[in-house]
Amino acid sequence: MQQRRHGTDPARPLYTAEERARRDATPWTLVQGVLAPVQFLVFLISVVLVLRYLQTGQGEQPATLSIVIKTLLLYTIMITGCIWEKVVFGRYLFAPAFFWEDVFSMLVLALHTAYLVALFTGSVPIREQMLLALAAYAAYAINATQFLLKLRAARLQAEADAAGNEAAADLSDHSSNGQPSPGVTA
Asked: Which of 64, 142, 133, 69 shows the shortest CA–CA distance to 77?
């Protein structure tokens, strides 16, 4: 079986048993689980404020503040996510299981950082700053979707592993009671 150069081997589970144990044991999993929905809520509020500003010209300060808060939350979740990835996979970024999510996260960070540079230098007019923020938000929405799909894959893997363990236990129970398993002839 050939492993792809970047990303995961299609036959490899998202987490090995050891990685899953480290994921479940580290407090950084809970930190990520709290920060992600908080960041998403701030994102939703900020999108509304930015769109309101772009449509009416009103509310520049709340829109700007919401983008800065969203960006600070992004930086926080990226730092804690790197720590989580180090604990679970042994590297701070680009672990095979999350390679493409991390690659796209770099674009998200670049766009958010470009917004802050534009804001603090005043090198870009306010309207264009808001459009830059929306571009950053579009990238964030794609990246968040990547991570949600990865979470779903992890949940499905856990369910499949549990079902496989139950089936193995049932098979073991049938074979240990002296009775042949169904479909097995003597």
From this structure: 69
Q: Is the whole model's pTM more than 0.85, yes or no? A: no
Q: Residue 95: CB partners within 8 Å, gap ≥ 6?
A: 85, 88, 89, 102
Q: Distance (Å, rounded) from C-alpha 27 to C-alpha 9?
A: 28
Question: Which domain covers residue 74, as residue numbers?
Answer: 17-160
Q: Is residue 6 part of a domain?
A: no
Distance, CA of 78 to CA of 81 (rounded, Å): 5
Q: Which residues of the chain have pLDDT under 50?
A: 1-6, 8, 180-181, 183-186
Q: How many domains does the chain have?
A: 1
Cβ burial of 46 (10 Å; 0-12, 13-18, 19+) is buried
